[in-house]
Amino acid sequence: MCFGFMGIQFGFALQNANVSRVFQTLGADYNNMALLWVAAPITGLIVQPIIGYLSDNTWSRMGRRRPFFLYGAIAASLALFIMPNSPTLWVAAGMLWIMDASINVSMEPFRAFVGDMLPRKQRALGYAMQSFFIGVGAVVASALPWMMTNWMDISNTAAPGVIPDSVKYAFYAGGAVFFLAVLWTVLSTKEYSPEELASFNDAEPEQGGIEYVERSAGKYLRSGTIWLGVGLILAWLIDANIENLDKNLYLMAGGLACFGLAQLVAGWLASKGKNKNGYSQVMSDLFNMPEAMKKLAVVQFFSWFPLFAMWIYTTAAVTSHHYGSTDTSSALYNQGADWVGVLFAVYNGVSILAAILIPQMVKLTNLRLTHLFNLGLGGLGFISFVFIQDPRWLVVPMIGVGFAWASILSVPYAILSNALPVAKMGLFMGIFNFFIVIPQILAASILGFLVTKIFDGQPVFALVVGGVSMLIAGLMTLRVRIQEE
């Protein structure tokens, strides 16, 4: 059931460890790196709730979730083959958008799949098993360029503006593994029908529940007008260059304005009595989240901000701060970039061990304290990057990051799945993704400004900011009240 996630993580790990390298090779600088990366979270923001809603309401010969696994895997595998052959920076940015959309089509139903297939008392173990396979896939995928160079003697350098062969072949291998791993899950699992799921849900005691309150057209319109106005005012301030505001803040302004427009559309539909549709359902459920989900949303916000900082800036931080090179065609820079792949493999490898230990940690304490401890390890790991000089010792903080990563991928979903109705598992999992995406958009909006204007062009401090954010996330976990069994 979880094996396909190994393939999905092959795609994500190659993307996370190498896309900044691809962008820098094709001419991106620190200040526009975050802007290029923002395609990934925005894609998830749009795709995941749609796919969640559709998979909740789909039943075919292939089942409920599995068609989305397969079609997403086909598209993502093709994107992985094309990405390292991008001739220009903007082609690479476009391919990142397509690749991330395809990965999300496969990934979102996998979250709901575990909730569908397991009783509540087994879900913590089920999501930990997902983390295990994520770690297995990512540890290999992250180190693939290094392995290509050191084990197969494939060149890791190329002419300026050209992607090295080691990166190209790593992406080709990742595309094949992605498709085959997901295909295995599609062919080897059988889903429960909607009727069977309903009977299972009726047989289990309710935990939590949702107090559903219909949001009026007036509330949508008033709130939407405020959000839209704030977004437009911020955009005007940026355009007028008041206080030398960074242009990347347009992302934040656009996000605020779009949320306002989304509410205005929902309000208009409600005023016309046209609220019995998928769009209105997503908007309504967004404002009717269970209490545990609302508090977990804050935890997710502060947890994912540092992860996005890591994916964007680790290559630039390590190559400049620890290897002393920003020349993407130099051997020293590419040596550092390869080492980043190894570091990413380390944290993903540690997450395999952490995935095994987390269920035992939960038994000894509870879900909240387990998450607090693991996020604390990750936060301290990020902060330590600025103090470590020898790049070999960066392996140590990545151990803490590995425990945090495994916990982020499992514990919140174990808590959340027990607070959601089975009939809307996919939709609420998709909405929950908003609180993964929003901090990434914020990171894309402000990290470039912080690095260039506040930290004097030293990207290693983006990781320090991320570490502080992760420590806050750990403390916010204590606010979540759950029934644990």
TrEMBL record:
It is found in: Membrane. GO terms for molecular function: transmembrane transporter activity. It comes from the Bacteria. InterPro entries: MFS (IPR011701), MFS_dom (IPR020846), MFS_trans_sf (IPR036259). Residues 1-193 form the Major facilitator superfamily (MFS) profile domain. The chain crosses the membrane at residues 34-55, 67-83, 89-107, 127-149, 169-187, 220-238, 250-270, 296-319, 339-358, 370-388, 394-415, 427-451, 457-478. Its main location: membrane. PROSITE patterns: MFS (PS50850). One of its GO terms (cellular component) is membrane. It is a multi-pass membrane protein. The keyword Transport applies. Keywords: Membrane, Transmembrane, Transmembrane helix, Transport. PANTHER family: SOLUTE CARRIER FAMILY 45 MEMBER 3 ISOFORM X1, SUGAR TRANSPORTER. This is MFS transporter.
